[in-house]
Amino acid sequence: MCNYLADEGEVAIFDATNTTRQRRQVIYDYCTQTFCFRVFFVESICDSLEIIDANIRVCDFYDIRKKKKIDRKNFIFIQGSKIKKS
Q1: Within 13 Å of residue 21, how many CA atoms lie on the same side as its CB?
Q2: pLDDT digits (tens, 9 = 90+) for 30-53
Q3: Whether residues 79 and 54 fall in one domain
Q4: Boundaries of domain holding 77
Q5: Does residue 44 belong to any structural domain of this protein?
Q6: Are residues 53 and 76 in the same domain?
Q7: Which one of 24, 49, 61, 67 has the fewest CB atoms closer than 10 angstroms to its CB?
Q8: CA angle 47, 51, 56 (to 5 degrees)
Q9: Is 42 among the domain residues?
Q10: DSSP string covering the chain, please?
Q11: Residues 53 and 81 in one domain
C-alpha cells in the first residue's frame, strides 16, 4: 500500500482488523513517519446480535498461537460472552 501511494496512488484503503489502539498507533507511526502520509481510521460498530452471530457463523476460526482450528461452538460462546460484557 505504501509503495503504491509513494509511486502513483493518491488514496488507499488498508482494510484490516486493527482493534487495538496500539496496533493503530503502529500503522499511523509507520505511514506518517516513514512516508509523511496523512492517515485516518474509519471504525464501524455493529451492536445487532443477529448480524454479529451471522458473521461469526460463516467464518473458520484459527488460533494463531496454537496453530490449529478452534471449535466453532466454543468460539461463539467465548465471543458471545465478550460481546455481552461490552
Answers
A1: 0
A2: 999 999 999 998 888 888 888 887
A3: yes
A4: 49-85
A5: no
A6: yes
A7: 67
A8: 105
A9: no
A10: -HHHHHHT-S-----S---SHHHHHHHHHIIIIIH-------------HHHHHHHHHTS--EETTTTEEPPHHHHHHHHHHHHHH-
A11: yes
Predicted structure pTM score: 0.55
pLDDT, mean of each 10-residue run, the chain (86 residues): 88 78 90 92 85 74 63 63 56
Report how many domains make up the chain: 2
- The set of cell numbers assigned to 60 is 473458520
Residues in the chain: 86
- Cα–Cα dist 24/7, whole Å: 24
